[in-house]
Structures are given as structure tokens and as C-alpha cells.
Queue: 2 jobs
Job 1
Amino acid sequence: MLPALAQHAIAAFSHAGDLVLDPMCGIGTTLVEAVHLGRNAVGVEYEPRWAELAAANLALAEAFGAAGRGQVRVGDARQLVSSIPRALHGRVALVLTSPPYGSSVHGRVRVEGGEVVKRDLRYSEDASNLAHVGLPTLIAALQQIFTACATMLRPGGVLVVTARPWRRDGVLIDFPGAVLSAAEDGSLVPVQRLVALLAGLHGDRLVPRASFFQLQQVRKARSAGLPLRVIAHEDVMVLRKAP
Ligand SMILES: C[S@@+](CC[C@H](N)C(=O)[O-])C[C@H]1O[C@@H](n2cnc3c(N)ncnc32)[C@H](O)[C@@H]1O
């Protein structure tokens, strides 16, 4: 998640002293931005490797004078209710998260032995990591996770989920739409659907930060006559727990 996106959502939907939760916190962008903005933060991450980095990032934020306090737990967000101390249930002002999905939009690109290779596009080799499951299973898991998030939120608290559409075999997958449907339940009501530009601004020109593989996919499609465009935004879905 781009730190600017997390900063914006935290400033817009919570206040200093509030508690912010990320149930799939990765290396802790949500947590770090929250503590820098004077919120307290708690994160859950399935992979010990990323949880360790998130804890290190939080320690660094504290060393740089962040006013809030943060903690990370290794766990499965599908069991969120048992991962988060009971005293915090119903106390969270904001859940801000981005689910694992679409290996085409993630990963580190390197040139190795004269070849372009991509690593870390699925967060780990563990088949139980939600990055490895098919779309229907992922959406069912997200439904379970968002229901647990609703239990963690205080009345009137907000859930913000960011997700990008992606392409499989050239076909656009409306992942954000599926995520929004998964998040809607009796107690979480959609209030906004926003677009976060992932492009930089150079004068009046947008400079997309698309990966090598995204650019390559679009170039190939275009030269085959298919008018694809590089995706340069993330959908931001905002839901509120009934007061
Ligand atoms: C898109 S990344 C989150 C990145 C994070 N927002 C950041 O900026 O660092 C999604 C994360 O969900 C984690 N994940 C996958 N399955 C999970 C599960 N069942 N419970 C908790 N975390 C999970 C992945 O390991 C990955 O780190």
C-alpha cells in the first residue's frame, strides 16, 4: 500500500488516540502511518517474515518520534477474533487493509543471469496464505475476515479496503467489486467508493508506476490490436459500522 494512501485514510477516518487495525498488515504500512499520526495500531499478519519486518518498521517509527504505539501479531485473519485481545474488541475506530491478490500486480523484478525474473509475487510459498487460493475461496475468506472486523469496530467505526482490478489472460477481473460485496453485511454499510491514483504527477502529466510485467502485458496486447491500458489506480471502498 502506498504510504500516502494510508496517511490519507487514517487522517480522514480516525482521530489522534484512536485505535487502527490492519488484519493482513504485511510489512506494516497501515501501522506505521497510524503511529506517526498519533493513533495506536494493531496488526495481524500470516507470515512471520513480514510480521517481523512490520515490527521493525514500527520500532523505527517510534525511534523517529511517532506518538502512537503499535503491535503486530502473527496469525490468520480468519481467526481475527481470537488473535486480538478481548479488551480491544469493539474499540477499533478504523480498519484499513489491502488483501493479498493478483500476483500480476505484485513482486520484485530483477535481472538475473541475463533474464528478467520476478520474486515475492505471492508473499510466500505457503499454500495456506490467501495469496495462493482461487478467487471464490479468497472472497469467502474475506467475507469471514470482514465479519470479524465488524466485531472489532466500535459503533460508527469505519472499514477501508483498497484493491486493484487485474487482468487474467487479458480479461479484466473486477476484484474491487467482489471485495465490496464481501464486505457488505448487516452491520457494515458502504458509504464511499473512491479512486486512489497510483501515478505520480509531473507537471500536468500522469506518470504511472506500473511494473515491468504490467507494461509488457499491455504492450503485447496493443501490438496484437487489443487496446488495453495500464491500470494506474486502486479502488478504495469505505464502509461504516452502524452507530
Ligand atoms: C497486500 S499485502 C498487505 C500489504 C500491506 N498493506 C503493506 O503495505 O505492507 C496482503 C498480506 O496479507 C497476508 N495474508 C495472506 N493470508 C493471510 C491470512 N490468512 N491472515 C493474515 N494475513 C494474511 C499476506 O502474507 C500479505 O502480507
Job 2
Amino acid sequence: MSADGARTSALLRPVTLGALSLRNGVIMAPMTRSRAGPGDVPGALAVAYYGARASAGMIITEGTQPSAHGKGYARTPGLYSAEQLAGWQRVTEAVHAAGGTIVLQMMHVGRIASRLNKDADARTVAPSAVRASGRIFTDAAGLVEFDTPLELSVEGIRDTIGEYAQSARAAQLAGFDGVELHAASGYLPMQFLSTGTNLRRDAYGGTLAKRLRFVIEVLETLAEVWGADRVGLRICPGNPFNDMRDEDPVGTYTALLGAVSAMDLAYLHVIRSPLTSIDAFALARACFPGPRILNDGFDFASGNAALDSGAAAAVSYARNFIANPDLVERYARGLPLAAFDRRTLYTPGAEGYTSYPPYAG
Ligand SMILES: Cc1cc2nc3c(=O)[nH]c(=O)nc-3n(C[C@H](O)[C@H](O)[C@H](O)COP(=O)(O)O)c2cc1C
């Protein structure tokens, strides 16, 4: 495509998602990069990393735990302590100084955790005490089995929703533009939604409506703090990643989107997984009338096509942003993309994180 043609592409035009006004539709998808410092605080490297990517229409941060209990992986940042808040404040300032928009992805991993990655007094919790099969990396002992989670009591569920609320308030103080609830990838919200991980027979499980309740209550809580038009929801219907199973994912997500449609959320962020035959994009289009961000495996041409067809308001890109901080400019000018190094995706330090320069040709 010529440079002139690219400049008029749908992806490069401003987009509105609820109360969020974006300068283009190229969203940076959330990516865990495991660079947080002691106390799970995002440091100077995170400021440089996100600041360099501020030309994205919107940055969705790496998954960030709303409490110590919500952590599962090594070196992921939190947003519940004063030090974490101060760290994130420096990140949002850098992104805003460059004219960008940034929302916090709230990620409570539930059972996808090792206690070796957590504070000593933090617990691994889930809707039911069902251990995920598989292993997780820890700095202390390499790959280890997932923890067997403790089943949350109803009071524990209320406390967990309270943790989301507190972290959402901290996100406001830290200067974010909104929050996204991570309800994909087999983490706590998806554990509540799915029949394989939610064996409860109380107000939070046993029927489809009760399995939806946790996600709906968390979203209502986030909307109380932020206004629904600054709250996004991320889903990946039917994805088996992290040992997830559901008897009827189409039924589950049809009902979920029906229930959340009336909330007027800022956006729905839908991942299409190659590991399931479910057409998540068609399901989202049929069941969610608000703005939709689509994800997984897009390039510039297919992203533009998704906007032109009306399937998407915006498209998110994860891997392409790793080695291309100036991805939007590369797309606009038809420049080649750099490749990233897998070995440094989750390693501490600048290498493979802030070491990728903008285009220099
Ligand atoms: C290194 C890495 C870390 C990721 N971490 C997260 C995360 O914290 N939260 C999340 O919702 N998705 C996460 N994802 C998934 C991406 O957001 C995205 O859905 C996936 O990479 C597909 O998009 P792409 O084809 O543009 O890379 C991660 C992906 C990668 C490659």
C-alpha cells in the first residue's frame, strides 16, 4: 500500500470507545513481561517501555494483580500498595506526556499460580478446589506444579470483589484512563464462568446465571468506581488454555454478553483462539452491540479489513509491539517490522524489553 493510501486507512483514524477518545485504532494488547521490581512495583524500565509505545491508539497494560492473592507469575506488577501506585503514576505520566491513552488490565489469576511467586501470606484461591494440570515458572525453583487452590467462601468472594474495587480506585489515583477486566486465559473470572472449574452449588455456581454472577458483580463494582464508559472486558470464549473446560462455551458467553450489554461498557475485547472452533468474533458481534476490539494474529491489512467490515471498532496487537515500539508509524509508512527474541520475553532487565529501537532506516 502506498504511504498516502496507508494514511487514510481505517485503523489510523480516531476512535471512540465509551468515554475514551483514541487517536487511532491500533491498540497495544496486554502483555505480561515480568519486569516488576521488589514489592511488585513497576519501575523506570516500565516507564521507558510504555512511554516508547504511546503512539498506540491505546495501551492496555500487562496483567496487574489487584491484590497479593491475585498474583501467580514471577515479577508481575500489582496495584494495591502506595509504592505500586507511585510506580504506575510515572508510567501514566510518560504515556500522557506523549499524547497517549493507557488503561490498566486487572488480572487476578486465581488458581494459575505458585505460592513460590507470591508473598508468604498470600493465598491461591479459586471458585472450587480444582488444581490446574500443568506447570508454572518460578524464580525460586524453575517449573513447578500449579498450587491446589482454596475454595473461596462467599465472604472471600466479597473480599475479592473489594480488592478489585480498591485497585480500581488506585488506578484512578495513578492517572489511568480506565480499566480492563481480564476474564480470559483461564484466570479467576473465567474460572467462575466455566463448568470445569466452578463446581459450586451456591449463589456463585450450579446454574449458568450463577456462574456469570462473579464477573457481573466485578464489572458493576468497576463501573461504580470509574463509570461503565471507562471499563472494558476481555474474553476468549472456549479457549482451553490453562486447563479450562466448559460444557457449553457458546451458551456461557451468549448469556454473559447478553447480561453485560445493558451496562454500556467502554468496550468488549475479544480474542479468537485457534485452539477452539468457536467463532468468537461472530458471537461477539451478534451479542454485544457496543464497541468491540478484536485480537489474535492480525496484521495491518487484516486489521483494516476488520474495521471496514464493521466487525471491529479497533484491533489490538500484542507480539508486533514487542520489537516495534513505533508500530503505528511503521504501519502508516509501510515500513518493515522487526522480529522479537522469545528468550527475553519474561527475563528481568532491559534486554528484550526496552532494547528495541524505533525504525532507523
Ligand atoms: C509475552 C506475552 C504476554 C501476554 N500477557 C498477557 C496478559 O498479561 N494479559 C492478556 O490478556 N493477554 C496476554 N497475552 C496475550 C496477548 O494480549 C494477545 O492476546 C496474543 O498475543 C495474540 O495477539 P497477537 O497475535 O497480536 O500477538 C500475552 C501475549 C504475549 C505474547
